[in-house]
Amino acid sequence: MQRLYVDEFHPKSELVTAQHPFELPPFPVVDMHAHFGPLLLGDDYERKFDTRRSCELLRELGIEKILCLELVWDEGYDRLCRKLDQSDGMILPVGSVDVSRAMERDFEQTACRQLRDLKSKGGVAVKLWKNMTLMGEQYFGRNLRLDDPRYEPIFSYAGELGLPIVIHVADPPCFFRPTDPENEHYACLSKHPEWSFFRPGIPSFDEHMEMQESVVGSHPETTFVVAHVGSYAENLGRVGEWLDKFPNMYIDTAARVDQLGRQPYTAKAFFERHQDRVLFGTDYEGHFDEARTRSFYHTHFRFFQTLDEYFEHPFPDFLGQWRVCGLGLCETVLRKLYRDNARRVFGL
Length: 348
Fold this sequence. Notes:
Elements: E1 29-35, H1 38-41, H2 51-60, E2 63-69, H3 74-84, E3 91-94, H4 107-120, E4 126-128, H5 131-134, H6 136-140, H7 152-161, E5 165-167, H8 186-191, H9 205-218, E6 224-226, H10 227-230, H11 236-245, E7 249-252, H12 257-260, H13 264-273, E8 278-279, E9 284-285, H14 290-305, H15 331-346
Parallel strand pairs: 1-2, 1-9, 2-3, 4-5, 5-6, 6-7, 7-8
């Protein structure tokens, strides 16, 4: 009998069930979590997609607006805006703050200036990323806590400016645990060992959740959209407790259909209960070709709109090694998820 490595195992299901592979949304959609710039596409991102053609395809698939979340500021933000100008306002650039300067004496002034700059140029939000707590060794030789006083001006001043913060705090819990046979993301982490945060000097996943709660709770005047189902799609009960506790907290669905789709009863009840606080996001990358883009969005719409069972989720190549079941959300919930909540939060 042939022996396989775990990442070589791709069984073909023999289930025969209802199929809706080309489901489209019933009304225009706002995708509030995508990347058309250097964060995922690299510094030569301008050459990797045609802005006009990308927008034509996305409109055909039902996308009305799409937020491009990038770690850019000053000239880097201007450069991104120039690339996206041909979208005619469909792709909205979202910039950031240079947190690598957090240890400098004048960081508060720098951060506030960069936030004002984003706001003055029509920015609808500010993007913050996991580098704030997980990559500090590259900047200062050690990692800072998310609730470190050095970062506080970002959270406070964004609130004063009315700029919502879209923040990616932590990766899945398994990325903070040993890559051993009990790790359900073993195949993913074996292929990408650089994604593992199980090493000295890095706060644990639980510590990240404590820091996230501390920051959101101590800045009630600032709107936070905590990406990837509030950092904890594996524990919707706890995410729901945060949403009940913090009226300034929202979440998006980006890159977590794999987790939501293996708990469809719990996830459907969660979406219904918190229907005013969840925003549709995908983690779409602007360089996807036409076939992959169509499949990517069709799978998302199929997941939220149908009760199809046991089908492949949008990131089978590096997230959960399992299949998902659809939620079959009603039109009222879909309308808020797909469009209304994002329009309200970002003032679109």
